[in-house]
Each structure stands twice: as structure tokens, then as C-alpha cells.
Amino acid sequence: MERAPAFDPAPLDDKDLPDMKRIALFLLLLIAGCGEEAVDRQIPREEAVALARDAAGSAFQALSAELGQAIADGGTVAAIPICSDKAGGLLKGVAEERGLLLLRVSDRPRNVAHAAAPADLEAMESFRATLSGGASPAPSVLPVEDGSTVVMLPIVLNQPLCLQCHGGADDISPETRKAIAARYPEDRATGYKLGELRGIWRVTVPSR
């Protein structure tokens, strides 16, 4: 049986070079065009921030209403299951209604699934520096290559009621502390004072 000849590409001729240059130029323009398209699809910064604020505000109101009702019915201990059982669904509902991705994250999470990523930590460091200077932090806005925009908003503890679950030893009752430890054995979300940064809302606004 005869063996098939090995593939031996023909050597390049000088006259082939212009065609290759044109192909290379076309590919470069195509790649550049894709990048420009992603940028063009990015919504304006102000619009992204407004959408993120609206989503985070609605989620906060919904969650606060659930927590307030639980506390009214059964005290602080009764509110603890709300965060673990209902908060995720509430946030998802708000996000889906607006076509966004909405998350709460922290460098000291109660639920380890809500741990902050490196970009979140950078934003939190900036927010804390602004708060320590007595000013209100501006949103952190990060354009993404796929055309989406990530908006990070500070979560500041401003309500004394929050300290019943997130404050220091004098703020949290032994009963509440025991309930938190039972549900969140790796909890790190205590020891806060009013006015401190608890975490951030990370809102991903899709492209046009």
C-alpha cells in the first residue's frame, strides 16, 4: 500500500505578502470593531447608577419590611431566619423585575456565600476612607468588557435596630447571639457601630 505523501506547504512567494498583510489588517480591524461595539452598548454612567440605586433601594425596603414584621411578631430572634430564608428570594425578585444582577457582599459576612471579591474590597476600602472623613461615599462604577456595568453602593449601618444583630457584646442579647451562632457558625458580622460600613450592594447593569 502506498503511503500518502506528507503535507508540504508551498513556500511563500513575495507576491503573496500583500494579500497576507490585507488579511492581517482585516483581522485587526475586526477585533477593534468588536471592542468598540461593546463600549457602544454600555449605558451611560449616570443611568447605570440610577438603575442600581433604584434596585438597591427597593431591595432594602422589601427586606426591611420583612425584618420589621418578624421583630414585631417574635423579637430579634425571629428576624434571623429572614436573612437566611427570604432575603435571597427578595433580592432575586427585585433583580429579575429590572433585568439586573443584585448582590449584597461584605468583608465580614454573616453568610460565607456573601464574601466580598477583590474588586468589592477595593471599593469598600475607598468607601470607608470617605466615611472616616465625614463625607458620603459616591458609587463605584466599573465598566466591563462585555458591555455591562458594575455599580457598587455602600451599605452603612444607620438604624439602632440593626445593632441588635450586628452590634457589639452589649447590643446583642445572649438569646440572639445563640440563635446567630446556630444558623451561622462562621458568622463575622458583629462588632459594628452606627455609621460604619457593613458591606456593599453590587449591581450589574447589562448592556443595551
Strand order of the largest sheet: 1-4-3-2
User: Could you say which structural class the secondary elements and strand pairing correspond to?
Assistant: alpha+beta
**H-E order:** HHHHEHEEHHE
> Strand-residue fraction?
5-15%
Q: Give the strand tally.
A: 4
What is the terminal separation in angstroms?
Answer: 61 Å
Low-confidence stretches: 1-17, 23-27
Radius of gyration: 26 Å
Largest sheet: 4 strands, antiparallel
Number of helices: 7
Question: How many domains in all?
Answer: 1
Mean pLDDT: 86
Helix content: 40-55%
Shape: globular
Structure description:
This protein is of the alpha+beta class and 208 residues long. It has one domain. Helices cover 50% and strands 12% of the residues. The chain has seven helices and four strands; from the N terminus they run H-H-H-H-E-H-E-E-H-H-E. Strands 1-4-3-2 form a four-stranded antiparallel β-sheet, with helices on both faces. A hairpin with a 5-residue loop joins strand 2 (140-143) and strand 3. Helix 2 crosses helix 3 (76-85), helix 2 (45-74) runs antiparallel to helix 4 and helix 3 (76-85) packs parallel to helix 7 (174-183). The longest helix is centred in the N-terminal third of the chain and has 30 residues, at 45-74. The chain is globular, with a radius of gyration of 26 Å. The chain starts with 16 loop residues before the first helix and ends with a strand. The model is unreliable at 1-17 and 23-27 (pLDDT under 50).
